[in-house]
Amino acid sequence: MEWNRIEPGKWTPAKRSNYNLLDAVSRNTIQVYPGCWAAVMLTMDNAGLWNLRAGSTERAYLGQQLYFSVLSPELSLRDEYNIPDDQLLCGIVKDMPRPKLYTI
To answer: Where in this chain does the record put each Plastocyanin-like domain (predicted)?
Structure first.
């Protein structure tokens, strides 16, 4: 994980122009202080379902986590299960079509 920018205040799309994309600091944890935001760049080394979460169970339980899927071109149940039909989606993905169903 590489952090590209940490700033106080509210994030806006205009902040993207300030990201450090050339020599970002590589580490597996970052501190995000109250009233601040952080831009993080992740590189996944394999397909599957990934969990990005807060370091403490209490904070993860309160919703400071997210799951995202890196799709495999194989679409095989050997690698990953299908997204459940009752899975809640939010943000820009809520109106997007679901991925193709995986098979054995």
So the answer is: 7-73
Provide the token pair at 44. 């996944």
pTM value > 0.70: no
Report how far residue 72's alpha carbon sits from residue 76's, in angstroms, rounded to the nearest whole number: 8
Element housing 61 (H / E): helix 57-61
DSSP state of 57: H
Nearest to 6 by CA among 27, 43, 35: 35
Q: How many CA atoms lie within 13 A of 16 on its CB side?
A: 4
Q: Is the Cβ–Cβ distance between 51 and 69 less than 8 Å?
A: no
pLDDT digits (tens, 9 = 90+) for 60-84: 677 777 788 787 777 777 767 777 8
pLDDT higher than threshold 80 for residue 85: yes
Please tell me whether residue 13 adopts helix, strand or coil conformation: helix
For residue 3, how many other CB atoms are within 10 A of its CB?
A: 19
